[in-house]
Amino acid sequence: RDAPKSKALTIAVVPKGTTHEFWKAIHAGAVQAEQELNALGGDSVHVIWKGPLREDDREQQVQVVEGFTSQHVSGIVLAPLDSKALVRPVEEARAAGVPVLIMDSALESDAMVSYVATDNQKGGELAADRLGQLLNGKGNVLMLRLQEGSASTTAREDGFLKRLKDNYPGIRIVSSDQYAGVTRETAKKASENLLNRFGADLNGVFTPNETSTIGMLLALQDMGKAGKVRFVGFDASQIMVDAMRAHQLDGIAVQNPMRMGYLGVRTLVASLRRQPIERRIDTGVTMVTPEMLDLPATKDIIAPPIGKYLPGG
Amino acid sequence: MLRTWIARLGPALGLVIVVLVFALLTDAPGRYLSTFNLRIVLSQTVIVALGAIGMTMIIISGGIDLSVGATIALTGVMTALGIRSGWPPSLALVAAVLAGGFVGVLNGMVITTLRVVPFIVTLGMLGIARGVAKWLAHEQTVNVPTTWMNDLLVTFPRQGWLVLPIGVWTTLALAVFVAFVLRRTVFGRRIFALGSNEAAARACGIDTNRLKVAVYACAGCLFGLTGAMQMSRLRQGDPTVANGAELDIIAAVVIGGGSLNGGEGSILGSMIGALVMAFLRNGCQQMGWPNYIQEIIIGVIIVAAVALDRARASWATSHA
Amino acid sequence: MLRTWIARLGPALGLVIVVLVFALLTDAPGRYLSTFNLRIVLSQTVIVALGAIGMTMIIISGGIDLSVGATIALTGVMTALGIRSGWPPSLALVAAVLAGGFVGVLNGMVITTLRVVPFIVTLGMLGIARGVAKWLAHEQTVNVPTTWMNDLLVTFPRQGWLVLPIGVWTTLALAVFVAFVLRRTVFGRRIFALGSNEAAARACGIDTNRLKVAVYACAGCLFGLTGAMQMSRLRQGDPTVANGAELDIIAAVVIGGGSLNGGEGSILGSMIGALVMAFLRNGCQQMGWPNYIQEIIIGVIIVAAVALDRARASWATSHA
Amino acid sequence: MADRLSVTGIAKRFGATIALDGVDFAIAAGEVHALIGENGAGKSTLLGVLHGGTRADRGMMQLDDSRYAPNTPHEARRRGVVLIHQELSLCAHLSVMENVLLGAELSRAGVIDRRASHRRAEELLSELPHPEIQPDALVRDLSLPARQIVEVCRALASEARVVLMDEPTSSLQGSDVERLFALIRRLASKGMSIVYVSHFLEEVRRIADRYTVLRDGRSVATGMMDAVTNDDLIATMVGRPPATLFPAGVRYAIPQVAMCVEGLACPPRLHDATFELRRGEIFGIAGLLGSGRTELVRALIGLDAPSAGMVRVGDNDEPSTSASRRIREGVGYLSEDRKGEGLALALSLADNICATRPEYAHSALGILDLQEQSAQSSRWMSVLRVSALGTQQAARSLSGGNQQKVALARLLHQRANILLLDEPTRGIDIGAKADVYEMINLRASAGCAVLIVSSYLPELFGLCDRLAVMCRGTLSPARAIDEWTPESVMTAAIGG
Ligand SMILES: Nc1ncnc2c1ncn2[C@@H]1O[C@H](COP(=O)(O)OP(=O)(O)OP(=O)(O)O)[C@@H](O)[C@H]1O
Ligand SMILES: Nc1ncnc2c1ncn2[C@@H]1O[C@H](COP(=O)(O)OP(=O)(O)OP(=O)(O)O)[C@@H](O)[C@H]1O
Ligand SMILES: [Mg+2]
Ligand SMILES: [Mg+2]
Question: pTM higher than 0.90 for the full model?
Answer without folding.
Answer: no
